Every structure is written in C-alpha cells, then in structure tokens.
Amino acid sequence: MPATDLPLLIEAARESGKIATRYSGSKAQRWDKPDGAGPVTEADLAVNAMLEQRLPSARPGYGWLSEETEDTQHRLSRDRVFIIDPIDGTRSFTEGSSTWAHSLAVAEHGQVTAAVIYLPLRDLLYAAAKGQGATLNGAPIVVSDTQDITTAEILAAKPNLDSRHWCQGRVPQFRRNYRPSLAYRLALVGQGRFDGMLTLRPSWEWDIAAGDLIVQEAGGICTDRLGAPLRLNNPHPRLNGVIAANPPLHRQLADQIDPDSAGIAP
C-alpha cells in the first residue's frame, strides 16, 4: 500500500546510498555481464544483497524483480512486486560521476504505487506514492509547462534522433540533452528541470518503474514509445521504449514517432 510502502522505500534507498558510497567508483571491483549486458560492480551486488534481505522481509507477500537477481516466474503470481535497480548508471559509477541513482518501486497489478529515485552524491531524493503527488527532498515537484516542442529541452541519447524513427523522416527540432541514468532522466522530467525524455529502444522495467510514477504524480504522462500506458511485472520485463513529458509535449512526441520503426535499433 502506497502510504506504508513509500517510507519503507525511502529508508531502504538511503541505506543503499550509505553502502554504495563506501566504494570508490573507479576502484570498485567490476565485471562485464554476458551478452553485452553492461558492467556490474561489487557496489551493485552489495546494495542488492541488502535490499533483497530487507524489503521482502518487511513485505513477505511481495514478489521481487531486480537487475542484479536472477529472475524467476514466482513474482508473476504476486499482486505486488518490488522492482529494483540497485545502481542505475553503473558506468557512471565506475567513472566516478555523481549521476548514478538507486531506483526502487512497488507495482500492484502492473501499476507502480510507490517509488523512490535517490542520488546520494547529489543529495537528491525523488519520491512518489500513487495519488499523493511527487516530491524532491520533501518538497512538491511538477512537470514543466512548455507547450512548443521547438523550444522544449528533451533528454535523449543521440541515436534516438535518427530520421528512421520519425514519421516521414522528420526529426522534431527540440533541444537535446542527456544524462546516463534512465531513472534520473525521468526524475528530472518530474522535477520540471527538463521538458521531456525519450528512449526508443526496449527498456528494462527496473530502469523505468520508479520514474514512471514520479512523472505521473508530478502531472506528466509516461508511456511506451507508441503512447500506450506502461504495465509492469511482465513475464519478460522489458518495455517498448519510453516517452515522458507534460501532456502537450507528450502528445507531440508520440504523434511524430514512426510506429513502423520499432524494429530499428536506436
């Protein structure tokens, strides 16, 4: 339940920050996952171990989905599930950057009900509970009110601007910016620091779940690349890209993406 799950997630996120910051990013032991799935460090695993012990113990009826835990079908039988990325932006962590984040969420029947994104090195804690709004360090946040896509600043990796992804090859002329953590990008949209974000490639649920609710509770819209509502805790936990923005900009972005480009890797 959001009212009780959110304080639990906040406490767990702060403890995650204490653990992760004991490691020196560039010196932390690191391995590369199979099949080009990216790096993992001893910090990721230490945070995951703490969360996997603490959160299910506090909510024994909940399922578990984490980037750093081998997935099982057990979670699919649970009404509520934790969706966790112990460190989102591991490459940034290993480079000594401060833009990595802990991303923690609870989803009920496929919809996120409580969420936290925490950047310990920047002292930024974004939080939301369904129906209760979104906050940054306890203060309410709202999405931007930019109406015109040509003046909007959108967080997106450069490959997403390939003309093949856009109707008739016409790429919208927004201003592009970038942050390495998907969770942080979504939080920045909820905060109103940026007008929107998009990623057109398949995205893991643990990168998106917490930010989905934060954007929505801040007054924005968060969908897949085709404008369909996000549903979490899928058998294969990947989403068909993500668009997040205030309602007018979301509509403009979604209307201009070519639905037939889904098979093209951005």
Automatic annotation (TrEMBL):
One MF annotation (Gene Ontology) recorded for this entry: metal ion binding
Annotated positions binding Mg(2+): E67, D85, I87, D88, D207
GO biological process, one term: phosphatidylinositol phosphate biosynthetic process
SUPFAM superfamilies: Carbohydrate phosphatase (SSF56655)
Cofactor or coenzyme needed: Mg(2+)
Assigned keywords, A-Z: Hydrolase, Magnesium, Metal-binding
Similarity remark: Belongs to the inositol monophosphatase superfamily.
Cited PANTHER family: INOSITOL MONOPHOSPHATASE (PTHR20854), INOSITOL-1-MONOPHOSPHATASE-RELATED (PTHR20854:SF4)
Protein name: Myo-inositol-1(Or 4)-monophosphatase
